[in-house]
Design brief:
The protein has 694 residues and is α+β, with helices and mostly antiparallel strands. Helices cover 25% and strands 21% of the residues. The radius of gyration is 37 Å and the shape is elongated.
Length: 694
Amino acid sequence: MEALEETEEVEQTPEDAISLNASDFLDDLETDVTVGEASAASDESGFDWSSIDTSHLPSSYKTNSWREKELLQLADHFFQQYTHLCPDRKPLFIHPVNECGVQKFVSTMVRPTLLPYPDMYYWSGCASFVCDYLIMEPLKCPITPPSSLYSPTTILKYQRGNCFDFTVLLCSLLIGAGYDAYCVHGYATLEMCSLDQTQELCPLLRKPPEVPEEEDPNKYRIKYPLEPQSQFELQQKAKKEEETESTQEEEREEEVVTEVDKPKRDPLHGLRVHAWVLVLSGKRKVPETFFINPFTGNHHSTTDECFLGIESIWNHRNYWVNMQDCRKGCKDLSFDLSDSFCWEIMFSENNKPSQLPTELPKNDTDDMQEKEEISMSFEMPLSWVARIKVSWREYENPFPGGKKVILYDKAKQEKWAAYANGDGLVQRLTVYADSDCTEELEVKEWFKHREDLLYMREVDKQTQLITDHFKPGHLLLLKAHSYTSLEPETGHTVEFYHTARVDGLWKRFENATEMTEYFVGREDFLHMRHIEFGERDQKMAKPGITADANPRPIVQIKEYFHRNPEKPADEDVEERIFMVIDDVMQLTYHLELHDTIASKVVFCRVIGREKREDEIFLSRENTVKYQPWSSEKHKNMRRLYDLLWKLRAEQKDLKQQVRDSEAEMLNILTVREDEEANIKLSVSMYSTAKREQE
C-alpha cells in the first residue's frame, strides 16, 4: 500500500508529487539523491543489461509451460478484481518479464537453495553474502517497480541488480536454509532506497545494550518507612522540570533549524519503491518477525521508521496483498498471513475462495465462478530458474573488484576478499572527528589466515598507540600487545593467555624506568609485581653493546599478595618491598576484620658496615618491627633471623626473575619485528582441496 507523506509546513503534497511526470522524477533524483562511495550504488562501468547473452539459457527461461500460462491467467484475473475494487491503489508487481523478455509470475522466480557453506545456513551469512557479492543499481524510476525481473542465476553471473533482484536472491537462499521468508514490495526512505548510510552509525561502533543486574529480592528484609514528603513540593518540582524541559526542547529545535548540515526534505518521501525481505517468527526458532535490507544485510524491526509501507509480499508458494493502512508506516501492521482482513491471498491454501468481493458485471459471473473453482484447486508450479550455484572461489571472494567501501557517519569501512592483501587484511574501519572525514581519530583493522595469529589491530591516531590482538596458540602465548614502537623500553603493554603459562602472568607493562607484572591464580597468592629501574652506566653505553651486556640497575621491587585464608592475618604478607640499592626490606601484613593497624617488619642496613653476600647481620639497630596482634613467640630474634635469611634468598631469586622478564620482553619484540617483516598466510588443506576442484 502506498505510504502517505507526513504533513509538514511545505506546500507540496503527495498528490502534487504524484502528478509529476517521469522526467521530472528523474531530474529530482539526479539532484536530490547523492550516492557516494559509501553505497557503491552508481554503476560507473556503464553496464548495459540489453547486451547480455541469453542464448545459453535453458528453455524454461524462454518459454512458459501450460501450468505457467494458467498461472498467468489466474494472476491477471486476480489483478482485474483488485484494480476494480481498489482503483486508488498502485498496480501490483505480479508478472514482470525476465531476461529473455518472457512474462513470469514473481513466485516462480524464487528458487529455494541451500548452499554448501556453513555460514549460508544462517540468515546473517546469506544476507552478508548477497550484499557483498552484488553491485547495487538504483531503479530507473524511483516511484514505480521495475518492468523486468531477472533470474537469480543471471544476477549472480553479472554480480549486479536492483533491490528486487537482491531480494529475490536473498529470499531464495533463506527459504532454502529453512526460514519462513518473503519478498516484500513496498516503500522506504531515500537513504534506504539509495543505499546512503552517511547519516547512520557504523554497526561496528554500536555498543551492546547494557543488561541491568538483577537484584535478588529478600522477602524477609526489613522495610523501613520512607521519609515523608510534601505532595505540594513534589508538584512544584515537577512543574519546574516540565518548564525547563520545554525551554530546552525549544532551544534544540532552534539549533536544529539553524544547522547547516540538516538534510533536505525528500520531495518523493513515501513514494519511493523499495524491496526487502520479511522473515516471520516460528521456523528456525526465530523469536520475532523482522525485516532484512538486502542492500546492507542488516536486520530491522518491523517498526523501523525507514520502512514506510507495504503493497504485497510473496514467496515460492503464494502471493499476498496488504489490505492494512500504512499511514503510520509498518509499525502497526499485522503479519498474520492467515488473517484475510489484513492480507488478501491470491491462491487459497485451504480450499476457501478469495475474500475479494465480486462486483463485476453480471455477464461475467459464470466465467468468474469457473476461474474461482480453478483457483481453489490450483497448485503453484515449480520454479523455472536453474539451480543456484556459487563456487568456493566465488564464496571466498565475494567483492566485485576485490574490495568494498562503505561510508557511515564519521566513519569509513573497507572490506577485502581473503588473500587479496599480502598481510591478510580483510577489513578496516576508520573513525573520523568530522563529517567530512578529514581528521582521523582511530583505525581498526581485521586480519585472517595469518600464521602469527594476529586477527585485529587498533591504532589511535592521536597518540599513535598501536594495539595488536592475537588468537590463542601464538608461540609466545600473546593475547594483546600495545606499543608505539617496536624498539625496546619505549613503552610496551603485553597481555598473555595466562592459563597456558606456568607462572600465571596475564599482563606486563614495561618502559625505560619501570616494569609492572600482573598475575592470576597463583598458589602463593601473588597478584602484582612492580620494579623500578635506575639509569644505565653511561661508561658502558657504547655503540654495539646490547642491553643484556649493560642491564638497568634494579632500584626497588614491590610485590602484592591476596589474602591467604589458611594463614593468620599477621603472618600473611600483603605487601613486600625490596629496596635493592639501599638494602632495605619491608613487609606489611594483612588486616583482620577487627584490626585497624597492619603489622610491619623492616630490615635496614647497618650504617658503617660493609655488606657481604654470605653474611646476615641482625641487631635491634637494623630491625624495626610492629606486630601488636601476634603472640610473644612470634616476636623473638630467632624468628626474625630466619625471616631475614629467607628474604635475602628470595630477593636474589627475584632479581633473576626480573632479568628473565627483561629478556622475555626483548625476545617478544624481536619475534614480533620478524613476524611483521616476513608476514606469512596459512592455507587450510581443505581450502586447497576445494580450490583444486574448481
